[in-house]
Model the fold of this input.
Amino acid sequence: AGQVAFIDLETLTVTATPSPDVNNGPNRPFDVLYGREGRLYSVGNPGSGGLDYVHVFDTVTHTEIGRSTEVMRSAPRLAMTSDKNTLYVGQATFFPRQIYRFDISTDTPVQTAAGPHGPVEVNTIAVDASGTQVFSSRGQVWSGDLTTRLGSFAPSGEEIEYSPTHDRFFVTSGNEVREYDADSAFPLRIHGLASTGGVARVSGETLYVSTELGVETFQLDAPTNPVASVVIEGPASGDAGVVHEFTATVSPHDATEPVIYFWNATEQNTQTHLGASSDTASFDWITLGSKTVSVTARNLAGEALAEHEITVTCLLYTSDAADDRYKVLV
Done:
């Protein structure tokens, strides 16, 4: 029977090898993940040859103390929210592929959500610190309740890791690991590997990547040129129904690139752009009054916020004007 090995990291000795409770088909433990204090979770991969579950182990007694009623058996991989109360399971080899969410606040995991059948692409998964975004290494971003696809990123890969300390995720693809901003799913930098990469993990300021030739490490310390400030240039007043352009410029001008710009404005949807030392955004309004345009500029080393006010006035067209474009501001 398959076993889960507990290893003492100081002595590098195996202290226990319990077997998950599988009563139908082969016992093939496939992924494990530590959760709240004293708990370890495992899933198996019997494929179509059997039934397996989400298993809960006591890390002190090294015994299984609970399991889900829902079957998980298709090359499942695990991810967990930072509060250790929610577990996600991605099943990669059955079609359609699927992601499931479990409440693990007790020792009986209870399925609370599942992604829509068909559009989900998954190999490995990660979840952000707030539990509002689930990242698939196949290039998809889903809402925490798995009802909505929030976005995508490219290229996709086989392994994915999220770092709550940096609010970034890392995707291993071939001979490189790409580092992405979690809020925008924009790429920040590429870490080249000497050989084909596998599992990536972040500890402190170090990224560890398993490869065909061993483990490679990369330092994630912030670059020396953070975004220190940002200013917005644009009109102070304008007409309703007219497009107005605003330009953001960061300081210093040699701040480490890329710079991500998050634009927000009264009554407008957020615009997210990937750029360099400056960026532009356009907005138009159909309502009158004072409107606020704001931008957050962010790079690997820091971020800054700026705001700009514009007063929107009304256009009146007179039917007897010689030029029907003639307008009277009120």
In short: DSSP finds no helices and 31 strands in the chain. The radius of gyration is 25 Å. Confidence is low (pLDDT under 50) at residues 323-330.
